[in-house]
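Inputs:
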Amino acid sequence: MKRPRVDIEASHRLITRRAAILGGVQLAFVGALAARMQFLQVDQADQFRLLAEENRINMRIIPPSRGEVFDRNGVPLARNAPSYRIVVVREDAGDVADVLERLGKVVALDPEEVDRAMAEMKRSAPFLPVTVADEVTWEDLSRVSVNAPALPGVTPEVGLSRVYPFGSDYAHVLGYVGPVSDYDLERLDDPDQLLRIPRFQIGKVGVEAKAEDLLRGKGGAKRVEVNATGRVMRELDRREGTAGSDLQLTIDSKLQSYVQARLSGESASTVVMDCTNGDLLAISSAPTYDPNLFVRGISTRDYASLTENKYRPLASKTVQGIYPPGSTFKMITAMAALEEGLIGPDDTVYCPGHLEVSGRRFHCWKRAGHGSVNLQNSLKQSCDVYYYDLAVKVGIEKISAMANRFGLGIRHDVPMSAVAAGLTPTKDWKLRTHGDDWRVGDTVNASIGQGYMLASPLQLAVMAARLASGNEVKPRLIKSVDGIEQPELGGESLGLNENNLRKMRRAMFDTVNDRRGTAYGSRIIDDTMRMAGKTGTSQVRNITAAERARGVTRNADLPWERRDHALFVNYAPYDNPKYAVAVVVEHGGGGSRAAAPIARDVTLQALAGGDPPLEAYPTKDRERIREQQEKLRAIQPLANITGKDQA
Amino acid sequence: MSYLEYNAKYVPTGPRKILYLNWPLALLLAAVAGVGFLMLYSVAGGSYTPWAEPQMKRFAVGFVLMIMVAMVPAWFWRNMASVAYLGSLMLLLAVEFFGSVGMGAQRWIDLGFIRLQPSELMKVTLVLMLAAYYDWLPSAKKSRPIWVLLPVILILIPTAMVLRQPDLGTSILLMAAGGGLMFLAGVHWAYFAAVIAAGVGLITTVLQSRGTPWQLLQDYQFRRIDTFLDPSSDPLGAGYHITQSKIALGSGGWTGRGFMQGTQSRLNFLPEKHTDFIFTTLAEEFGFVGAFSLLALYALIIVFCVVSALANKDRFSSLLTLGIALNFFLFFAVNMSMVMGLAPVVGVPLPLVSYGGSAMLVLMLAFGLAQSAHVHRPR
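Outputs:
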């Protein structure tokens, strides 16, 4: 079939026309592509060349040196010391196992560390150095250098490592540093690039952890040229980072070391605080541990011995240990009643040895009773019934509110780990947590710091400081950052009736200095240093009827875990308060026997700024104290480094 | 058609047909493929394996295939158009059920000797089908709605199937190629104006709907649009490819960094450097001169096709050749726009240069059809 010629021609013309249009569009597009090419490759070539260079050039982070920590007198507590380690580069070593075996003949290698290094080498790029021995001695390092020809790929490296010159004395305050773990990284939303550096050290607990942001500093950077595999060819330039801030603590290292020595052998804790500005001069918990062990990487055996110890050396009991405050709480109960005007300081309550409250009989510690007692007598003899009576009148809400004003039941802002809030119970709280109504009996128990009431030694020290000053003293641990003094916290008046406070202080003075006071045995006889305080003995549990039947009524007959906690709070000098002290001896028995003597020694040490004159002690104690002072001097660590300059 | 339909003066027969091939076009194709071998050799770090050597073998096979297809009279291909179209549809359907999943989309059927990508084949058979349709349809009817609707359906069926795989890039190319062929065939321009107007209206509406209660796209889809418009807003995420690609192009400068000296591809900053983004390596190593030369080669291929088509009095032949040229144009235009940051990253390879067997063979088959039309044109 022939196609009509006209049709062919018409169709061809149409197609040609349309093809011309479409071809024009295509041509325009090709032109646009060419223009774009010219724009990118000619006009902006320099800029993109720069970006390509940036791709080729890598930034490497230079770790900053960590801030150091000093005591209030400039004694170094945490320093950075050069540490030597041995690293192996896989591709230079060739047969790694063989080289390591030869290295093992030169220096002692930890098999665990070697296994870890072998595993790390398999994972990482062949040109990256892997540490096979950390914290090696200078001698080992020289031996490696001498044998270098026989040890291809093995190089000694110098780094900075954290050292705590006072060892265990500051374990609970400073804590320790350790290499970043995966767990640390997971906790942070946007971790600092520094943390990506293998084995970078960060604070794990204590001030090291809480002041991490200050201590860490900012990383520097160097630009290096890398080839296709990321191997560094050469360093182009570098920008140093900023070192971490140096911290000065309020702690007095001399006092801290003394306190730590004084507590040795006990499971106890002591806080010494400046009543005037809240500075923590000593904050010690015993037993303790050596934080230097953790920096190097503690062995599983050492760690287990710390965690399995029943005296809990890892816990910093001053802030995280919470105890029933016992009779040391009586000041709070009394203050609540006095401030409410329910009783005057001189009004008396009759103590027959017990109090009946809603059908239950609550005993005074003295079964025979104290007779008629006012505030002064009740506190110095620690009569329980007086406070039972007050508490029933004033109610738990007012008591807890007063406790809060004195810093109990409040989490104080100190940069230590696991700072506990303690507990000042309320009706609401009991309903919420126990699903049970508050009973009058609970109030009676709370009035003498038993039952639900819980406080940490730090809180007790704050309480003593506030009683002494009448001001809202707040604890401060960091004195200055890079030489810049940190503000002292809260010096406002608590707004309490000055007369009530004066009576209370007098009662606390009598507790220590009156012949009938519970802490008379721990008095100070130097008139310029006299102290006021209060003993406390808090029951861990009641002695059961069955035990009583067996004749167990004395604390010493019970196993250690069930004995009473011994507590003591005080401040001194009485007429011009300077220091507030709280001592808790776990399961130590009576406060007057176990805690008060420690508090007296510590108070005197703080006031005298060293070993106090024996004349401050009552005559019959002097010989014993002299022996004790000698013994403690022997176990205190030599403050071998005494100034920043020598560091 | 056959020669019987025209007053043919001279008819090449037998092996002599080879002399009547469009040799300049064949040589241009070989030149472009040669650029491809060079770049594949370069991105492999100066090695024939794993890419350059297989690519050369495939091109050899493809070249032979082109000549074989060219030897068969064009009217045979016209008569086979509907069969080829249906066959391609079947293969697309087969992908739905037996296809292998690659890069998150179902695209291939493994035929044992080759992994066939039916959507590639469809691009050619759709053009073939439409060319045959407009050859068959009397000129007077081509702008009537019913006769416009039919090719639209022919285009939309495979487009929808490819979109399901999902392969947005190829489905857009299918629509563009189909629409382009309808335009070339002389369908009234008002239809195209209406479609373009509707498209612009739709896009405006979608963009306007953002942040309103009747928002038409999901938030993540809007974010993708944002990334396309400003890749630097997400340099390590979705914008990474395009940012690195632009860096590679730009750093090439006038004459490039030299063969095998491109740091962007050397240091593995470029993604898909042997497939979709191979142009960036060329641009980096040979600079504006190299990149522009490749663009010129591509443009010349189009020009030779258009010249061949317009010299051909046969409606089927010229439509087929123009359609194939358009297809080829869309191919490299979309790829280049993509790597130069003018279009979103949709996954279209650079024709004859990117590594890939299926696309190469299908392209050579298409040029075989164009060659057939050229050889068998009425003289």
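Remarks. The mean pLDDT of chain B is 85. Strands of chain B lie at 100-102, 105-110, 115-116.
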